[in-house]
Design goal:
It is built from 2 helices and 3 strands, in the order ααβββ. The protein has 103 residues and is of the alpha+beta class. It has 2 domains: 13-61, Orthogonal Bundle (Helix Hairpins); 64-102, no CATH class. A 3-stranded antiparallel β-sheet has the order 1-2-3, with no helix packed on it. A hairpin with a 5-residue loop joins strand 2 (81-95) and strand 3 (101-102). Helix 1 (20-35) packs antiparallel against helix 2 (40-61). GO terms for molecular function: translation initiation factor activity. One of its GO terms (cellular component) is transcription factor TFIIA complex. It holds the Pfam family TFIIA_gamma_N. Belongs to the TFIIA subunit 2 family.
Length: 103
């Protein structure tokens, strides 16, 4: 049974490690491990902090929105990852202060 004993024990998902920034961080950490500058435990600590920081920043500071309307063609759920394939009719991208761009 898992227990939450502090703020550092909160679970953060590894969603952003596949982003270009996450991949660059992973590559840099791998190089540092290979050269002997850091140990693997420190690299894991850095990756966990990256997961936490990316999640917090995107949930609190992101101001842009994207709205897509269309017809759902296919929906898949595989390994707790949802895939939705749409035939879009209208896309709206912008932030709170802009009217956005329509396609």
């Amino acid at each position: 049974m898992a227990s939450n004993t502090g703020i550092n024990s909160a679970p953060y998902f590894e969603l952003y490690r596949r982003s270009s920034l996450g991949l660059a961080l992973t590559d840099a950490l791998d190089e540092l491990i290979q050269s002997g500058h850091i140990n693997p435990q420190l690299a894991l600590t850095v990756l966990k902090q990256f997961d936490k920081s990316a999640s917090q920043v995107l949930s609190t500071q992101l101001r842009s929105k994207c709205t897509v309307k269309g017809h759902l063609s296919t929906y898949r759920l595989c390994d707790e990852v949802r895939f939705s394939i749409l035939h879009p009719q209208l896309e709206h991208i912008g932030n709170e202060n802009e009217s956005g761009i329509k396609f």
